[in-house]
Design brief:
heterodimer, A: alpha+beta, six-stranded antiparallel sheet, three-stranded antiparallel sheet, 5 helices, globular, B: alpha+beta, four-stranded antiparallel sheet, 39% helix, disordered C terminus
């Protein structure tokens, strides 16, 4: 059975398949802005709390760059790229639901000065591969709901 | 059949208890065995959720005066009281390859507890974000934490028994004062294995039942084991660096805790609503009034609204679904909705006024 679920997944950025974070490279500064994608937020529910590492903290792809508590789970936020946090969105620390309401805009989490963007980008999904990935994720969620 | 490790401990300190669980979660992806740890804390420890403010959730002065430990879990949810009659359950398994989403994960992990409860004739169901309930009354609190390495920690506190009067002394409630009526209200929202089974179950009996429940649920053999020296050293290091530090236990967030209340007159009598918010998320709703012919229905509604977004449309939809599911409850759903929204708005107004304890609740926290 096909799903009624639809998710906004902009094609102008990269996505971490496992942790459902997006990474967008600013062409001018080379910085990577990071946020949570709509599929990840569907699984988490409304965010109640977010903590983020301080600026100037070095992070490794897959390592913790923060923690969040959402309606459905508490989890570490895994950095999608290796580098140094050079900015963080302090507004979401006091208003975590901004991440839910504007995930690809005002709900961004951090900006990272990447150490190895090209290599990290190869590990992320983007461009023509996005539609297939989203379709597979939706099918997985449907199967899970059907089983429960 | 796969083999998992089974650890048993009793009378652990809060810092040790939590450091063991996090350490095991951080190592299970690197090859440490999946482990089910069933343990009790020394009497007593107050454990707050990952992002809670200890001063807002716990009567710190009482704890200090009576030697109770206070600490912070890596998992979310609310504050709990742990001691000899509350079984701590910590299951650590690799998270990668676990494709389930959070709610499904919680249900999957809680199945072992459901089976254990069933073995003494208790039918429990998973509900909301992190509760295992019997007839709308909480019998276990649940939490899942995903370690940066991908290890998953399933945490639970199973109520074999509970000293509600002590809990009311240790944990803050929205009611402010502790009276027999408030204790009765808290009692009506929780239940225990001893109360439901009518048996004087001891912790080892329950531990065996939980162990068997998880073994059957996951089709694994649970083999009694111990922590190795390397794990022991890592646990000690984590205690010193994290769980035994003031900066961990008493950390705060930028999300304000606020409380609000509303009172409405209904055909059934006066209805008092108390709402505790964390930012724009409802941490807890408490209903009191002259109508309590259906305690389980009221507890059910409180459970549905726990960790619920404080949006008007969402509250309205949730109360409406609750009303449809509980036709035996005579409360006016519209009046109830209006009162809950009014209480939430009062809490939001308290936030705007930078008065986190606006309205009427927990005034002593201003001095904490």
């Amino acid at each position: 059975m096909s799903s009624d679920r639809t998710f906004e997944v902009p094609h102008d950025r990269h996505y971490d398949r496992e942790h459902h974070l997006w990474a967008s490279c600013d062409a001018d500064s080379g910085r990577i802005r990071v946020g949570i994608d709509a599929i990840g937020l569907e699984s988490l529910g409304e965010l109640a709390y977010v903590s983020l590492q301080e600026t100037n903290t070095q992070v490794v792809r897959g390592g913790a760059m923060g923690t969040l508590e959402a309606a459905k789970m508490t989890t570490t936020i895994a950095a999608p790229v290796t580098g140094t946090i050079v900015a963080r969105n302090d507004e979401i620390l006091s208003q975590p639901t901004l991440v839910n309401s504007d995930p690809y805009g005002g709900g961004w989490l951090v900006e990272i000065e990447p150490a190895m963007w090209e290599a990290d980008a190869d590990e992320l999904v983007s461009g023509d591969d996005l539609d297939e990935w989203v379709t597979a994720e939706v099918a997985r969620m449907d199967a899970e709901d059907h089983a429960s | 059949m796969k083999a998992w490790r089974l650890l048993r401990e009793d009378g652990v300190s809060a810092g040790h208890g939590l450091a063991v669980d996090e350490t095991l979660a951080s190592r299970v992806v690197q090859g440490a065995p999946p482990t089910l740890r069933l343990y009790t804390y020394r009497p007593h420890s107050a454990l707050i959720g990952r992002f809670q403010d200890a001063a807002n959730e716990v009567h710190l002065a009482y704890c200090a005066a009576h030697g109770l430990e206070v600490n912070r879990r890596p998992t979310g949810g609310g504050a709990i009281l742990m001691g000899p009659d509350q079984l701590g359950v910590a299951l650590t398994v690799p998270g990668r390859g676990t494709e389930l989403r959070p709610r499904a994960l919680m249900e999957r992990f809680s199945d072992g507890l459901v089976r254990a409860l069933s073995s003494v004739g208790i039918v429990a169901t998973f509900r909301g974000k992190n509760d295992l309930e019997v007839g709308g009354r909480k019998i276990a609190g649940l939490g899942v934490y995903r370690d940066p390495s991908g290890g998953l920690l399933f945490h639970a506190s199973l109520l074999i028994d509970l000293d509600v009067a002590l809990m009311a002394q240790v944990l803050k409630t929205p009611f402010g004062t502790i009276t027999d009526a408030e204790i009765a209200t808290v009692s009506s929202r929780t239940t225990t294995m001893r109360a439901l089974s009518g048996r004087d179950l001891d912790v080892d009996d329950v531990r065996n039942r939980v162990s068997e429940g998880f073994a059957r649920s996951f089709d694994v053999a649970l083999e009694p084991g111990e922590l190795d020296a390397d794990e022991g050293a890592a646990i000690t290091a984590l205690r010193h660096a994290k769980y035994d530090t003031e900066s961990w236990v008493h950390q705060t967030t930028d999300v304000p805790d606020t409380n609000g209340s509303a009172t409405v007159a209904t055909d059934n009598g006066q209805l008092d609503i108390h709402v505790a918010l964390a930012g724009r998320t409802i941490k807890a709703v408490h209903l009191r009034g002259d109508f309590f012919e259906t305690e389980s229905a009221v507890a059910d509604l409180e459970g549905r609204l726990r960790w619920h977004a404080a949006r008007t449309d969402g509250i309205r939809a949730t109360v409406s679904r609750w009303a449809e599911a509980t036709p035996e409850c005579s409360l006016d759903a519209d009046a109830l909705t209006r009162a809950i929204i009014a209480a939430a708005e009062a809490a939001s107004a308290a936030e705007a006024e930078r008065d986190p304890y606006g309205c009427f609740v927990t005034p002593e926290a201003n001095h904490g």
